[in-house]
Write a structure and sequence with these properties.
The chain is an alpha/beta fold and about 220 residues long. It has 2 domains: about 120 residues, Rossmann fold (3-Layer(aba) Sandwich), CATH 3.40.50.2300; about 90 residues, Winged helix-like DNA-binding domain superfamily/Winged helix DNA-binding domain (Arc Repressor Mutant, subunit A, Orthogonal Bundle), CATH 1.10.10. Helix content is about 40%, strand content about 20%. Strands 2-1-3-4-5 form a 5-stranded parallel β-sheet, with helices on both faces. Strand 4, helix 4 and strand 5 form a beta-alpha-beta unit. Helix 2 runs parallel beside helix 3 and helix 6 packs across helix 8. It is elongated. About 5% of the residues have low confidence.
Amino acid sequence: MRALVIEDEARIASFIEYGLTAEGFSVEIADNGLDGLARATSAEFDVVILDLMLPRMDGEEVLRRLRGQGFGTPVIVLTAKDAVLDRVQNLNAGADDYLVKPFSFAELLARIRARMRSGGGDARQSGTVLTHGPLRLDLPRRRVWRDDVEVTLTNREFALLEVFLRHPGQVLSQPQLLDLVWGYGHDPGSNVVEVYVSYLRKKLGADVIETVRGGGYRSSEFR
């Protein structure tokens, strides 16, 4: 799958690129609207992530020109504006979805999956069910089982568990988990990761996630 990210803030572009690459996407970055428009119309992409505040050509104009040319690829708009009028204007202009900054990568990925399932783009995915040892996650229905017993998780707990299962055995640091689940703008001094790991252990078993001293956390191997 191919994704085009049109974003001039290097930190945000890198954050999205890292997450999408880990999910199997080939990612291209454009740091201004004019370059983004040219790339979008010169190659095939499965999704476009479009910031609104861009140099050389703003995102709204990029979106209008793309849709005016019959560009049918799903476009997810990123913006710091959260007023209802702003959302309505961009959806009316042809955006498929709208994400307000700061956002978590888990939420962005869920929006991308939803757009692909709706038929707006190439629906190739690496499967809709994740399994790891006794754990099974049904991604579209947001349901979780351990040893065939269903467990109810909150949206944030589900997102955190999904990150661990998509990176089996990989040590993930607290800053990485904050970025992927809570968003790049979250307080790096927060203990929210520790709190939610504790929630998952209580609901799914203490053996689900291992603490790696000085490193972070990783999913258990379940030998």
